[in-house]
Design brief:
- By secondary structure, the protein is of the alpha/beta class.
- 42% of the residues lie in helices and 14% in strands.
- It has two domains: 49 residues, Helicase, Ruva Protein, domain 3 (Orthogonal Bundle); 118 residues, Dna Topoisomerase Vi A Subunit, Chain: A, domain 2 (3-Layer(aba) Sandwich), CATH 3.40.1360.
- It has a five-stranded mixed sheet. It has a two-stranded antiparallel ribbon with strand order 1-2.
- The protein is elongated.
- The structure holds zinc ion.
Length: 188
């Protein structure tokens, strides 16, 4: 049987499908949207559409970008001898917010879609590779694997210092701890 409030219900389920939004919050949010936040909601809908349509991956580093190359890869003032490997483009926002790192980035979402030649291309002119992975056994395995694949390329490898707690993502780490972990990075 078709519900009488079908548009409302599909809004609730669309919200519920988003990470971090449970069924209670989805209902609360949907109610808010259709009752007292109509104008903001339309603005949000436009912003979502616009972002989804215009954001893609940087062809060099996999960061989010509006153009073929992201604003970091196309910035001449960045230190192109350093490349920081992260597990999510979200981590770039986190590290950029700290403001102490001026090198390049490379995003490897997971080992399955890791493309060695693509990474090697991004490493042209790079002397130091910094792994900014949230510490875990899985990320240590991935670091070892990538490092072994890049053997003989005359690179210095380092990773962010412990102090970033094990098992949580970088966006949950406070700015100060992350700044310190980057500064105190350890050579591998
Ligand atoms: Zn880029």
């Amino acid at each position: 049987m078709r519900s009488k409030l079908e548009p409302f219900e599909s809004l609730v389920s669309a919200l519920e499908a988003m990470p971090g939004i449970g069924s209670k919050s989805a209902l609360k949010l949907a109610y808010h949207i259709v009752t007292d936040k109509k104008f903001e909601a339309i603005k949000l809908a436009h912003a979502i559409e616009n972002a989804v349509e215009s954001i893609r991956r940087c062809t060099k580093c996999n960061n989010l970008s509006q153009d073929e190359l992201c604003y970091i890869c196309s910035d001449d003032l960045r230190d192109k001898t350093k490349l920081c490997i992260v597990q999510s483009a979200k981590d770039i926002f986190t590290i950029e917010k700290v403001g102490l790192y001026n090198g390049l980035y490379y995003v490897i979402n997971d080992i399955e879609d890791f493309d060695l030649n693509h990474l090697k291309n991004a490493l042209k002119g790079v002397k130091e590779v910094i792994f900014a992975f949230a510490p875990s056994v899985a990320s240590d395995t991935m670091i070892l694997y990538i490092e072994s694949q890049l053997e003989g390329m005359d690179l210095i490898f380092s990773k962010i210092a412990q102090g970033v707690p094990t098992g949580i993502s970088l966006d949950s780490v406070d700015t100060l701890s992350l700044a310190k972990a980057l500064e105190d990075r350890v050579n591998l």
